[in-house]
Amino acid sequence: MGWRYLVLTLGAITMVFWLCRFCFFKLFESPKFLVAKGRDDEAVAAIHGVAHRNKKKTWLTTEILNEIGGSAETTEKQNLSSKEIIARSLSKFSASQITPLFSSKRLGITSKFFSGSFDWVIIDSQT
Description:
Helix content is 65%, strand content 0%. It is mainly α. The longest helix is centred in the N-terminal third of the chain and has 23 residues, at 2-24.
């Protein structure tokens, strides 16, 4: 019976902290993410918000950001088939990245052991 109280107590504490996150803390989106999405004004606002929270001042403006990094590039959305996506991913693969793992007998055994253990972790987690 004691484990049930433990689970309920830990769940209640987690819920309280989860609610406090929304009530007391303002979490800003990552400026790197915002710039990558072309939302430069929001990225500058996020940096100003973090600086204000840390009682600092920042000189960054959207104009300065565009001077430093240039304007956001627009790219057309590519419609690739699954086969083309897999071919593109596999084109980056090279056997020269794996051969050092099996350069000696000891490294080969260790590499096989760890890859086999990882396979069983994946298989076990899916059942």
